[in-house]
Amino acid sequence: MAHFLTFHHKRLAVALASGVAGLALMAGSAQAGGFASRLGSTDATAQAWAGSAAAGLGIGGIGVNPAVVTSLDGLNAETGGAGVFPDASLSRTTFNATTAVPGLAGAGILGAVNGVAGAAPQQTGNFATSVLTAGSYFNVQLNKQWYFGLSVTAPFGLGVNYNGNAVFAADRTRARITTVNVQPVLGVKLNDQWSVGFGFQVQWINLTFEQRVSTLAPQLGTGQVTAQDVGIGFTAGVTYEPIKGTQLGIGYRSSIDH
After folding, report:
1. List of residues 6+ apart from 29 with CB closer than 8 A
2. For tag attachment on the chain, is the N or C end more exposed, with fewer CB atoms within 10 Å?
3. Phi, psi torsion values for 6, nearest 5 degrees
4. Number of other CB atoms surrounding residue 51 within 10 Å
5. Cα–Cα dist 231/214, whole Å
6. How many angstroms separate the CA atoms of 161 and 158, rounded?
7. What residue ranges define each of the domains in the chain, with the CATH number in brackets?
8. What is the largest CA-CA distance in the chain?
9. Which residues form the signal peptide (predicted)?
10. Where does residue 48 fall: left (phi above 0), alpha (psi -120 to 50 degrees), or beta otherwise?
């Protein structure tokens, strides 16, 4: 669950916006673990998501605050993307992991493996997987007051991939999450200052988790779990423009259970 409260001014960079948006970003990422990917809007990424609940990022802001859909008249569309190319490695001489034996409660095969005390540490190489992510946003003015918008993003989508012979293989050799989040929204301009928006989210998720049965006996092969699910959530928000060129915004996105 993530909450965003931001302040945007066309001519002024406001530290409060950066601070609050940054705290919201960290809170959301902490709950999502290492798989969160907030790179769907290139404008928002470049500004560290500061001002994202107001209209400063264009229609890309509807992913955070659906009321932003009323900020641009006519018909508008935006697509952006980013690439993540991490480099991470580990070294370890020994690693202990227990693999359960079906039918034997409390029993297991200990995988203290691929290493001897005092030997040179084994290198995993780069186990972080590269990923390309994108986001698309669209809005259309239906009449003088009502607006429709749509965002398609991938909020989670990172993974790790260890060498199958590494000492970590008894714990995992591969883990990856892929998501697609579709969010249609409606916004209404109450007057020249106030707008409200609301919508729902449909999120598809695919999880792959793989580990070697036991590195003591590689011939036993690997086990893999693959799961898919679709979750539903909702979103709502408000924007307020006290004076021309200055806008306040607050947006809410519910959690989605899988």
Report:
1. 36, 38
2. N
3. -135, 160
4. 26
5. 34
6. 10
7. 2-253 (2.40.160.60)
8. 75
9. 1-32
10. left
